[in-house]
Fold TetR/AcrR family transcriptional regulator.
Amino acid sequence: MPTETTSKRGRPGYDQQSVLRIAVDVFNRHGYDATSMGILAENLGISKSAIYHHVPSKGDLLKLALDHALGGLEAILEQPEAMTGPADARLEFVLRQTIAVLVERLPFVTLLLRLRGNTDIERDALERRRAFDHKVAALISAAREDGSLRQDIDPRTVTRLLFGTINSIVEWYKPGGSLSPEKLADDVITMAFDGLHAAA
Amino acid sequence: MPTETTSKRGRPGYDQQSVLRIAVDVFNRHGYDATSMGILAENLGISKSAIYHHVPSKGDLLKLALDHALGGLEAILEQPEAMTGPADARLEFVLRQTIAVLVERLPFVTLLLRLRGNTDIERDALERRRAFDHKVAALISAAREDGSLRQDIDPRTVTRLLFGTINSIVEWYKPGGSLSPEKLADDVITMAFDGLHAAA
């Protein structure tokens, strides 16, 4: 978008992506329901009408944000490494990539994970998230049936605990710190599959 | 409290514990900030003045609820099994008991884990929660220094991932279902310490 246009309407240099990034931060801080277009405008330092220049409504911002999170996750399952080979290797690939998407798109995935499902947009997103979770759960079951995962834990429990571990990363991980996304993924995979006990 | 007294003031049979339990459910559903005494009264089916008979304020209900969650957690660390013996056995004991308290006091711990820290009561509770977390983190470090936990993961990451796994239980565990609290604790400990890979 040419600067001439934006500078006429508010703080120059905003494009839809910057508006979206700031909106997602505000949603995560205040909750989506509690965030009005007025609060958004205040945080962006532009007028409400300038926001409408970028997106027609608050719901559209939410939709764009959730689509960015879900699109990243869904694309993982279409990679060749997720589709061919032994189930346990596919599972490891999918979990590593899930962590990578989560870290790379941290505020967007945070927003997705905190959804309450009060609007159609939220319910659609939760539906897509459940579809993703079900595909990962199917991989876990396949790896267990192959005999590569232990048999003494119900696969539903395994699925819940793995997602619990991975999703909790949004609550504490600080991008740019001493723990790189790759080492984080290594650590999660090591703990989940090999356990914390030192080798005997 | 004698029934004569309560029946004069509203629905008979409520005591402070029942009021507290219902209040915690309402806080978890609507968020503490968004819950007024009016909403509480509506959910209890009694008048606002009848609530004031049980507790002086919404903050007092929050304080009682958080104290129930934190009291349960803090008591774990005072058990002999948490205080003596090898660090890895103490750690395992503490994690198992943490899961037991979490399941037994599920709505109370859920409330604790979702705190945003907007009031002094919340900040005091978060302070106590941090103190608990630090003591568990110290056990993790001690078990690692003993050589019983693997050395290739930073103890801070181990702490975050273990708490992430355990705390996420509040999001999905249904008491009274086919997964008992004891089996759940076994599963978490097995996955975290021995890993999901089938023994070779």
Q: What stands out?
A: DSSP finds twelve helices and no strands in chain B.
